[in-house]
Amino acid sequence: MGLIREPLEVDFFFDPKPLTKDDQKMISDFIKADKAKRKLKKKSKKGTYTQQRV
After folding, report:
1. Backbone Cα Rg of the chain
2. What is the pLDDT along the chain (54 residues), one digit of tens a residue?
3. Backbone angles phi, psi at 47, to 5 degrees
């Protein structure tokens, strides 16, 4: 990660709050589902090649 450059006239303030167990589980489940979806998408690309006869 890099640094976030602030514009001269704007100040960014944030108050980091710890995630609840439910939030952590929801994010974890989303990441697992996304990885599985990407893995299936990668596999399906390999089988889509078909050779056409002229």
Report:
1. 22
2. 678 777 777 777 777 889 999 999 999 999 999 999 988 877 655 555 667 776
3. -90, 5
